[in-house]
Amino acid sequence: MRFLIWFRSIPLIWKLMPLLAAVVLVAPLPFSGGQPTDRHYRVEAARFAYFPGVLRANPGDRVTIELVATDVVHGLEIDGYGVGVTADPGQPATMTFLADRSGSFRMRCSVTCGGMHPFMIGKLQVGQNQWLWRGAGLALLVVVAGAWKVWK
Questions:
Q1: Are residues 119 and 143 in the same domain?
Q2: Based on the domain organization, do 59 and 117 belong to the same domain?
Q3: Can you give 88-107 as a three-state secondary structure string?
Q4: Measuring CA to CA, how many Å separate 149 from each of 20, 30, 72, 143?
Q5: Residue 4 lies in a domain
Q6: How far is 66 from 68, CA to CA, in rounded Å?
Q7: Which of the residues 40, 41, 42, 127 has an alpha carbon 20 to 30 A from that of 20?
């Protein structure tokens, strides 16, 4: 009984905040990636880094990566996709795959290439970064709630 009395005393805006937060977290985002296309990337591997370090694709894109090792033998594997390629210096190697999963995937060197080898990583971003937009939506809700509290 006390709970009902307490609950009725809460303004409607505070009752709606958890519902609005849940909607921000689970509602589908209105972004569309467009039509699937062929994407070609030339990735240079040298001194424990990939250049470029971040590759972007839309879901459904056919991605071709040409790996060019400039100093020693390097590899490139994409976690979550099970694809990889190895290139010798001066001999580019290519791999092609379908970007059929959305999210961020780590690209890492699959050949021990020196002391900093464990830090030779990159990123494949397939689709939009939804957590960024969802976090921004939650932050906006917090700002609105704070403004409401100050205003009242």
A1: no
A2: yes
A3: EECECEEEEEECCCCEEEEE
A4: 17, 30, 60, 10
A5: no
A6: 6
A7: 127
Q: Within this chain, do residues 118 and 139 fall inside the same structural domain, yes or no?
A: no
Distance, CA of 107 to CA of 96 (rounded, Å): 14
Q: Can you tell me which residue has the tokens 């010798």?
A: 88
Q: Quick check: is 15 in a domain?
A: yes
Residue with tokens 């006390």: 2
Instruction: Give me the pLDDT at residue 150, please.
Output: 81
Give residue 117's identity as a one-letter amino acid code. Answer: H
44 plus 117 within the same structural domain: yes
Residue ranges making up the domain that contains 46: 38-127
Count of CB atoms situated within 10 Å of the CB of 107: 24
Listing DSSP states for 8-60 in one string gives HHS-HHHHHHHHHHHHHHHSPP-----S--EEEEEEEEETTEEESSEEEE-TT
Distance CA 79, CA 111 (A): 15
- Taking only Cα atoms into account, the Rg of the chain, rounded to an integer number of angstroms, comes to 23
pLDDT confidence of 95, banded at 50, 70, 90?
very high
Q: Which of 70, 66, 138 is nearest to 96 (CA)?
A: 66
Q: Tokens for 47? A: 């001194």
Q: Are 103 and 127 in contact (CB under 8 A)?
A: yes
